[in-house]
Amino acid sequence: MDIRNTIRLISRWGWLLLLAAVLGIAAGYVISQYQKPVYRSTTLILIQKPSGDPVDNPLNVSDKQISQTFTELIATGPIFQRTSERLGYPIDSGKVIVEAVPETDLIRISVEDNDPQHAADIANTLVTVFTEENANVQATRYAAAEESLQAQISDFEQRISDLQAQLTQITEDSYNQQVNEVTQTIANLQAEINTLQEEVVRLGYIINPPQPRNPYSIANVPTPTVEQQLDYVKKQDRLNELKSLLGMYQTIYVDLTNNSGAPNNAASRRAQQIQAALDQYIQNYSTLLNNLDNLRLARMRATPNVIQVEQALPAARPIRPVPFVNMVLGGVMGLLLAGGFVFLREYLDDTLRTPEEVAEALQLPVLGYIGDMPTPRLKNAQAKLPYVLAAPRSPVTEAFRSLRANLEFAELDRPLKTLLVTSSTLSEGKTTIAVNLAIVMAQLGRKVVLVDADLRRPRVHHVLGITNLAGLSDVLRKQATVQEVGHAWGNGNLVVITSGSLPPNPAEVLSSHKMAQVLEELKEQADMVIIDSPPFLLADASVLAARADGVLLVVQSNKTHLNAATAMVEQLNRVGARVIGVALNRMNSAGAYYYDDLKNYASYAYDVEHTQPSKKQP
């Protein structure tokens, strides 16, 4: 589609495109008025990276995983539930957006709500609740470690007390009991350590899976959950404590069972062994007290690792709806819908509209551009005349004169004495063109005979207002002569032969030898014989086309279908008819720019009458 066709298409459907755009803009404005405003408030929080010490890194995750882990933790159900309970109204999790800021340790929390204050309150309360929950996790971790140390200290206090009591009363049984207790404790600790080591190894493999040998291979490595990471930390801390405790008891056991340098008597030797164990218990007891003090000091120095760096504030303007944007989108959608309709309409519409389309599709020249024929405001007697007589100075009449001139040029290579005027279907204006063309030819002083060869639905006598008592069918049945049925019309240069009575077999009558004789007789008597034939969907037109010197096809713009027109041309070629060209009728409905030059000429040469639209041409 070239630029000119595009411009013509836009000019033809511009009203629809404009209407669709206006309706789309109006729809966007109406939707904006009825749509509830949505406000957005945003806050930023900073996630402090752990220093690398297991005490400061409870999740034992890498720096790359920290922001993503905390992002997932914030958007969990328990956090939303506690935030809702604190605010006193439910929170729609779908309106909360939590995202990590790329290449930073920041997390952005955005909340959308119909109330700007609610949006800001939800964002700030989410940060507060999450900070508290994170602090509770830290406190719980320290509390567990402190409780474990307290239990160990109590146990050591009890054993120290027992050993001190044994020193006052040393017996063989008490010594054996002490050794058995230490041995049993070591065995229990060893069993618990073995179990914990298996759990730590399993969780460590999940949290820190081994890297594939092939660096280019893609392994489906599952992401560890937060619960697994916390469980891993707790079990590893407990394992370290048990290993330390096991070492203490092993030292005590060695002291209890060491016989080197012991005195001769057994009681004195046992007393020395108990004293050595007591000294070891007291030393370990001091170590535990020191660890407890360090743990309490670390707890006092611990600071939250979630810091709100930018507080959410109520938004002054809603983020949507934006009336201007909705109106623009509505207008664009309207244009797209209308454009799609126009495209489908034009794509599915195979009617011929412009001279270029006709010439390209039929490979025939367009000899005349006949526009719409408005009814002139004349006297009643003149208004009943054919259009070229009722409005002799109109652009349409000039178009018929131009068609007449083009037909005269067609006679240069081969004489054109009989001209058949036909169309592919009904009501395309062939009779109107045949009558007006015959009149403008007769106005040059040429002898013209107009024959109504449509023996099924004749129209020439209606257009010219003459009787149809006898006509062509009577001549073909040898009931009258050409001179008897001819009607002199106008200035005498035009003779009209109507159809006459309608026969039951029009195709056989028109294909008879008598019809050929009638045409030859008319050619001898006239300068031009114009035949108004039936539409080409009937066999009558093919018979007449083969006997005429030339055929003028009538194509009504925006009505004649491409398939019908091409089928008509193919049929004409099969019967050996000579197709002179095409008369494009009622072309104003498709594009008036071809007619502009002729209108300008008519306006300059004549005082064109004011006109108004008329009914469909016959």
Oligomer: single chain
Binned strand content:
5-15%
Structural class by sheet pairing and helices: alpha/beta
Distance from N terminus to C terminus (CA atoms, Å) equals: 33 Å
Mind telling me the CATH class of the domain at 407-598? Alpha Beta
Largest sheet: 8 strands, mixed
- Percent range for helical residues? 55-70%
How many helix segments?
A: 21
Query: Could you tell me the mean pLDDT?
Result: 80
- Strand line-up in the sheet with most strands: 5-13-12-7-11-8-10-9
Q: In the CATH scheme, what's the topology name of the domain at 407-598?
A: Rossmann fold
* Overall 3D form: rod-shaped
CATH architecture label name of the domain at 407-598: 3-Layer(aba) Sandwich
Question: What are its keywords?
Answer:
single chain; 618 residues; alpha/beta; Rossmann fold; 8-stranded mixed beta sheet; 4-stranded antiparallel beta sheet; 21 helices; 14 strands; disordered C terminus
Report on the architecture of this protein.
- The chain is 56% helix and 12% strand.
- With 618 residues, it is an alpha/beta fold.
- Among the domains are: 51 residues, no CATH class; 146 residues, no CATH class; 192 residues, Rossmann fold.
- Strand 12, helix 20 and strand 13 form a beta-alpha-beta unit.
- Helix 4 runs antiparallel to helix 7.
